[in-house]
Amino acid sequence: MIQPKPVSFVAPVVGAAGAFAGLLVGTAQGVPLLGVVAGAALTAALAFLWLEVFRKERIARWITFLGFGVAGFAIGGLMGGVIGLAFGWLFGWFIFWLGEGRYRAKLPPYTTPLQVFYHFLFRVICGLIFFFLITPIVVVMPLSFNAEDFFTFTPEMLRLDPAGYSLKHYRDFFTNDDWQQAMWNSISIAPVATLLSVSFGTLAAIGLSSEHVPFRRPIMAILISPMIVPLIISAAGMYFFYSRLGLQGTYWGVVLAHAALGIPFVIITVTATLVGFDRSLTRAAANMGANPVTTFFRVQMPLILPGVISGGLFAFITSFDEVVVVLFVGSAGQKTLPWQMFTGLREQISPTILAVATILVTISILLLTTVELLRRRSERLRGMSPG
């Protein structure tokens, strides 16, 4: 049976969470230290008030929700009110989640307090890392709708005034010849490079998965070296190598360079898929008279297809987002989208970059979602997770 926790335990924990929230709000207002102190004191006082004096959870959560919203509106206008409502909902739930001991509901009853602490500390650390990684990306998205040619939030945007938002940067991307040429260059290069990466990477992974191949580990290390070696070194080496072959500054030079960068991703994902592959199936197909090509396409390929597609998606993202190698190997005729973005940052500081960045982030999210779905399908096929 879950037992309520004493306020002497709940108040410091809630206060620590409030200090972090106060740090964010205080930093935005230019007074981070005051934000930490005020956030810790306010949330700890609320925990004491709701758990010791006023125990009606439903009403207390509504008061917290609306109170934080009003305070946020007073400090930062409409946007501040929205953020305040979010914090109010969070802390109204968090106080009673801790105070009523609900955090132990899904944990084994024999779990010690120290184990509970480590359990949630791990999740808090993961959440902070995720917050640290995702915040710069999230900030770019609303900025891409800025009605002004600025890289900062205008007062109109902070007030959620419709006049502060516009699609003009997206219109510039879809109507500007330079951006469109760069986009079509990326679209023409990335799929071909992906096809080559998938073809060579899959064959290499299947070959290296065989126990009879000599020097498997050194060969694997060489094949995945483009993923490990600093990109500037790979780009310089490709420049000197392709210039001797007459491929520097050509379409196929860029395609082959991007294919070399994508092959390691295909090898790794396909090799991971082959770990659970039952090789007795290929021997059974051979006993039934199937030749190696038929065995590959009819038996082996359907089972490792999720890994092949996952590797292909990673190779596509690598080619579509790559800028260093194409600066060395390509020419003005092969200026890709990342190259155009780099030029825009260096020469003209065009806010259209924000719109392009948002589009690329959206594409990456869709591709990574596809990778995750394929990973789960692969686990189901190999019997590693329930169907």
Structural notes for this entry:
The chain is mainly alpha-helical. It folds into 2 domains: 7-106, no CATH class; 176-381, Orthogonal Bundle (MetI-like fold). 78% of the residues lie in helices and 0% in strands. It is built from 16 helices and no strands. It has helices spanning 7-29, 32-53, 57-99, 113-143, 155-158, 168-175, 177-208, 216-223, 225-228, 231-245, 251-274, 280-287, 292-321, 324-329, 337-348, 352-381. Helix 1 (7-29) crosses helix 3, helix 7 (177-208) crosses helix 11 (251-274) and helix 7 packs antiparallel against helix 13 (292-321). The longest helix has 43 residues, at 57-99. It is flat and about 80 Å long. The model has no long low-confidence stretch (mean pLDDT 85).
